[in-house]
Specification:
The chain has about 170 residues and is mainly beta. The chain has one domain (about 35-170): Lipocalin (Beta Barrel). About 10% of the residues lie in helices and about 40% in strands. It has one helix spanning about 1-20, and strands at about 45-50, 65-70, 75-80, 90-95, 100-105, 110, 115-130, 135-145, 155-160. Strands 1-2-3-4-5-7-8-9 form an eight-stranded antiparallel barrel. Strand 2 and strand 3 (about 75-80) form a beta hairpin.
């Protein structure tokens, strides 16, 4: 019995030693979310596409959930993505972190349709919107987009940060 206990002790000690040798801290700066360059603007948003007048819903649409997230390069570029829900908009845009404004280069590739889009006059405004459901103060997003499938028409997109609260989900214009 003493022999089995001794062998088991050595086995457990060996396993503990091997585990400590092979565990290591991840030094990848991108894996650490606190090092994401565009962290202040990443998240989900309720956004509506409006006609050029900035008031009339485009094609009778309503709010859809957009996402903004960092590119793999972890620089001031980020993805603006409607999750293929409405206007089929997924494009890379560039953020000026000091002013929280953004735009794309003209005729940026739009990944859902294979067409192009030009995004201008983009802006995030901190703590400027009160949600209608829960009265939570959140950030706003606004930008304009001209798509190659409708040249000459500049759509206005307006929205606000998603809270995740049931009272705020699936808003209507």
């Amino acid at each position: 019995m003493k022999d089995i206990t001794k062998k088991l002790s050595f086995l457990l000690l060996g396993f503990a030693l091997m585990s400590s040798l092979f565990s290591c801290e991840n030094d990848d700066p991108v894996a650490d979310p606190s090092n994401i360059v565009v962290e202040d603007i990443t998240g989900d948003w309720w956004v509506i596409a409006l006609e050029p007048d900035g008031e009339t819903p485009a094609y009778g649409g309503d709010y859809v959930q957009f996402s903004t997230y960092a590119t793999a390069a972890n620089n001031t570029n980020f993805w603006l993505d409607d999750n293929d829900l409405w206007m089929e908009l997924k494009a890379k845009v560039s953020l000026d972190p000091s002013t929280l404004t953004f735009s794309s280069v003209p005729d940026t590739e739009e990944l859902y349709t294979g067409e192009t889009v030009t995004i201008t006059n983009g802006k995030f405004t901190k703590n400027s919107f009160t949600t209608p459901g829960s009265n939570t103060v959140v950030d706003e997003i606004q930008f304009e987009a001209e798509f190659s499938w409708d040249p000459g028409t500049v759509y206005v997109f307006k929205g606000y940060e998603r809270t995740g609260k049931v009272a705020d989900d699936n808003p209507h214009y």
